Amino acid sequence: MLEMVKYLEGQHAVVTGGSRGIGAAIAAEFVRRGARVTIMGRSAETLEEQARELRGERGVTVSVEECDVSSADSVANAFSRSVSTLGPVQILVNNAGTAKSRLFTQTTLADWNDLIGVNLTGTFLCTSEVVPGMMQAKSGRIVNVASTAGLRGYKTMTAYCASKHGVIGLTRALAQETAKHGITVNAVCPSYTDTYLTSLAVQNIVSNLHKTETEAMGMLTGVITRGTLITVEEVASAVSWLCSPDASGVTGISLPIAGGEVQ
Ligand SMILES: NC(=O)c1ccc[n+]([C@@H]2O[C@H](COP(=O)([O-])OP(=O)(O)OC[C@H]3O[C@@H](n4cnc5c(N)ncnc54)[C@H](OP(=O)(O)O)[C@@H]3O)[C@@H](O)[C@H]2O)c1
Predict the structure, then answer these.
(1) Across all residues in the chain, what is the average pLDDT?
(2) pLDDT over threshold 90, residue 120
(3) pTM score, two decimals?
(4) Which residue has the CA at smallest separation from atom 32 of ligand 1?
């Protein structure tokens, strides 16, 4: 275990989709590193539950904001309240996301709009809230939780892959615009990670391909060269490093956390 240096002390970090899964692990890692953290998501109840857990032992500052990242009004209101409560945002992690598995021929416009709206437009809207302030401050860190689906294609995932390829395009282009302003913009690209989203993927394979749960899980872990799911802590520590002073020279990258699946 690396030494627990509080290199985020004094910083306000916003994590969208911080109520469970990868986002909750990132929020917990930020708290350990000394940041004041706002977690955002659509359910106030789940957010409060997660915040209580984070505040628990340590008496740290964790705030919650109800927010649907696909809605411009909801995002503007949530960020305005968050800045009033914990001050200007120095770190933004665009993690809120959704996934759905459909053959392309069965993908409806509603499916498409839902995935692009949350995964890609949500990233655009939240990022738009923080970039002007970061430019003024001449510093800031933005990390987008993309996916290996932003780096390669998967069958039955056209809308999801398109949304995550879009997130990587946004990351690369924005890094070019912000590098001279002391801001870094990076993406992390996990493969199948041990969360609710992956359990949905397992259930989907069970229902549609008539496999057992063990067989379905084997199909997912078989994609990852090391043969096991990525853990939420593995994603959180990569995100935390990208926000650390040690990563000040890193911008525009899309870092696979994929156990060898993509290189
Ligand atoms: N799990 C994987 O295998 C995997 C692999 C690669 C990348 N990722 C990416 O990692 C991110 C997190 O995934 P996860 O596996 O941790 O999923 P998860 O367990 O389902 O958590 C998703 C989080 O996002 C929030 N959320 C969903 N829709 C939202 C919306 N419209 N507005 C605001 N918040 C919203 C959820 O809270 P509410 O539902 O209460 O709003 C929840 O906090 C996603 O971007 C996903 O695409 C996941």
Answers:
(1) 96
(2) yes
(3) 0.98
(4) 68
Of ligand 1's atoms, which has the minimum distance to the CA of residue 193?
3
Q: What is the pLDDT of residue 143?
A: 99
Per DSSP, helices labelled H in the chain are 21-32, 44-55, 72-86, 109-115, 122-137, 158-178, 196-209, 213-221, 232-242
- The answer to whether residue 154 is catalytic is no
Q: Which CATH number is 12-191+231-257's, of 3.40.1400.10, 3.40.50.720, 1.10.132.60, 2.130.10.10?
A: 3.40.50.720
Sheet containing 140-145: order of strands: 62-66, 36-41, 12-16, 91-94, 140-145, 183-190, 254-257
Task: Calculate how far, in angstroms, residue 178's C-alpha sits from the geometric centre of ligand 1.
Answer: 26
Catalytic hit among 154, 160, 192, 196 = 160
Q: Give nearest CA residue, ligand 1 atom 23.
A: 17
